[in-house]
Amino acid sequence: MTPPFHAARKTELFGFLVLAAFVLLVLPGVVDPFRLNLVGKYLTYAFVAVGLVLCWGSAGILSLGQGIFFGLGGYCMAMFLKLEASTPEATKIQSTPGIPDFMDWNQLTALPAFWEPFHSLAFTIVAIVAVPAALAFVIGFAMFTRRVGGVYFAIITQAIAAILTILIIGQQGYTGGVNGITDLRTLLGWDIRTDSAKTILYFVNAFLLLGVIALSIAVRSSKLGRILVALRDKEDRVRFSGYDVAAFKIFVFCFAAAISGIGGAMFTLQVGFMSPSFVGIVPSIEMVIFCAVGGRNSLIGAVYGTLLVNWGKTTFSESFPELWLFAMGGLFIAVVMAFPNGLAGIYKSYVQPLFARIVVRPAHRRRPVGGGKTTPAIAE
Amino acid sequence: MTNNDFLLSVEGLTVSFDGFKAVDDLSFYVDPEEIHVIIGPNGAGKTTALDLICGKTRATAGSIRFRSRELTEMKEHQIVHAGVGRKFQNPSIYEDLTVFENLEISYPKGRSVFGALAFKRDAKVRERVAEIAEMIFLADHLSERAEYLSHGQKQWLEIGMLLIQDPELLMLDEPVAGMSVSERVKTAELLHRIIQGRSVIVIEHDMKFVEDIAHKVTVLHQGRVLSEGTMAHVKSDPRVVEVYLGH
After folding, report:
1. In the predicted model, what is the mean pLDDT of residues A249-270?
2. Which residue of B lies nearest to A251 if distances are taken between CA atoms?
């Protein structure tokens, strides 16, 4: 009944398969293990970018504080790993053995109560998703039921990112302060610092990312996905069509937060530490740039955008560390001004028609498809 | 005093914007299956009255009872669920979605977050959408993106989006404004068809159209009821002639 929808779905499926091949086969094939670990780190940011595609691209909710959720997921993982690394034997030179080293340095003599549950991996895995989602629910409930939106919402999320960073840095005894939680070693006895562990973690991360993208595709192609697009466009019409708009916004914001939390946890596992520098304003805005460069309406594009910007960052910041921030700002402005749909938009308007001319036309000639009057809609 | 015979009873409705009373002690009643037209000069409070009924604006004082439920205490989406549909003055549709998807979103099923996730586009939905699309002259445009529709088609689409909800009370804000002559004729015909069997409140300036459809006319002026009754009665009221119809 709605052929453009199916056509769009087919392109998305094709893009998904290409991405899967790229991430699972091409990258591990051509990149050496050290760089692969770096790519794995970049791919953890892609979780956030994918969340932003749903939140910002689909529903029009721009959050400049996604680092909050990435960080919370990462901290949950780090707390588990840190507890595992802080056995009484390993920490016997401390005045209180058995607690993380930074606590001992800060004259804590017992493990704080909120750290206790992180002895359990099952609890930790739930918390990685649930803690970011719960905070997103509180923020979303407070903001969206009061109809706070647009730039005001963006500013508030940014403020919360700043507050959380200050809180983490200030509560050094509980959080490891500005250094973060470092010196993480094993996951249930499995050493995560070896090359083979890093390769395995890369693939775990890649599969999780692909799973999250598949789930996001499902959400976007459900009626809920169309309602999000509708409310981005005409919020009042959705409200007066009998929908509780705030509930939908809260849902997508929590969903994006939960995804970001998974990314954060995978970051901790692959990089071996977590610190407040991944929580604050700058990383949060960088994540928005990844999404914008990739194309804020494309789940697949967001991944490439993340990889490209991070590759650029690593390459340029090695040679011109001062210039990088300006380059990044310039890139963001250029993308917004010239290519509002990012890489995905460039692909759609330049590369895809080229493909279509080469591949699709002969196919059409052989097998004329019924419902010709829908063709103009596809071309759009 | 109970008004259970009325579908909608608005009593003592007042809204004040920083001291300016856009609607001032307004009372009127709508019977089941009544076509009630609200007319009046610009700034009389017509659109504000609709905003108050559908919950877009909150009343400062007064009550709005719909089938003996108090609407002033309900949220917008609950008012819709109660059976009140509202069409806005400017065509308010989802430009990035197709005509089919526009109608589908308005289909009254899967309105909760998880309901929407689990919503299936089954045969019943398709049939209903096709039926409505036929009625609003857009059967050939189902897979077109709504932004490419003409102004008149957008108005029809929004009317269709209300129809698919099958509301008991339909509120239309200037449904024929900004249309070409042929679109206007078609729209009038469409409205005649869809207002059967339900109560309708219409705001309209087109007197010919009003005369055609109105069972009852309320004339508003500066937030208050100036005159009320049949079209013939209102037309002969000297106060109405002075402030509105005279020019």
Report:
1. 96
2. B113
* Residue range of the domain that includes B194: 8-245
Print the domain residue range for A167.
Answer: 3-364
How many domains does one find in chain A?
Answer: 1
DSSP letter at B109 equals: S
Read off the pLDDT band of A2 (50, 70, 90): very low
- pLDDT, tens digit, 9 for 90 and up, residues A7-34: 677 888 889 999 999 999 999 989 888 8
Residues A78-106 have pLDDT tens digits of: 999 999 999 888 888 888 888 999 999 99
**Residue A379 resides in a domain:** no
Q: If you average pLDDT over every residue of chain A, what do you get?
A: 88
Q: Is residue B160 part of a domain?
A: yes
Residues in B closer than 8 angstroms to A8, CB to CB, are: none
The pTM assigned to this predicted structure is: 0.90
pLDDT > 90? residue A353: no
Note whether residue A369 is domain-resident. no
Is residue B164 situated within a structural domain? yes
Establish how many alpha carbons lie within 13 A of residue A343's alpha carbon, considering only the half-sphere containing its beta carbon. Answer: 19
Listed range (A23-32, A282-291, A362-371, B187-196) with the worst mean pLDDT: A362-371
pLDDT at A227 over 80: yes
Asked whether residue A378 is domain-assigned, the answer is no
pLDDT of B124 reads 93
Among B53, B57, B71, B77, the strongest candidate for a mutation testing the A interface, having the largest count of A CBs within 10 A, is B77
Residue type at A12 in one-letter notation: E
CATH code, domain carrying B140: 3.40.50.300
d(CA A244, CA A144): 10
Q: Which of A232, A241, A375 is the best substitution to test chain B (most B C-beta atoms within 10 A)?
A: A241
Residue A375 domain flag: no
Closest listed residue to residue A110, CA positions, set A96, A124, A126:
A96
Tens of pLDDT, residues B51-77: 999 999 999 999 999 988 999 999 999
Query: CA-based angle A108:A109:A115, to the nearest 5?
Result: 75
Task: Nearest chain A residue to B148 by CA: give it.
Answer: A377
Number of independent structural domains in chain B: 1
In 3-state terms, what secondary structure has residue B225?
strand
Pairing of strands B8-17, B20-30: antiparallel
Residues (pLDDT < 70) of chain B are 1-4, 246-247
- Spell out the residues 6+ positions from residue A76 whose beta carbon is closer than 8 angstroms to its own: A118, A124, A127, A128, A131, A261, A264, A265
Q: Which residues of B lie inside 8 Å of A (Cβ-Cβ)?
A: 54, 56, 75-77, 80-81, 85-86, 88, 92-98, 100-102, 104-106, 108, 110-113, 116-119, 121, 126, 140, 142-145, 158, 161, 165
Instruction: Note whether residue B1 is domain-resident.
Output: no
Closest among A248, A2, A6 to B129, alpha carbons compared: A2
Region A239-254: what's the mean pLDDT? 95
List for chain B the helix, strand, coil content (%; round to 5): 40, 25, 35
- pLDDT tier at A356, thresholds 50, 70, 90: confident
Query: Could you give the CA distance from residue B171 to residue B36 in angstroms, rounded to a whole number?
Result: 9
Q: Could you tell me if residue B109 is inside a domain?
A: yes
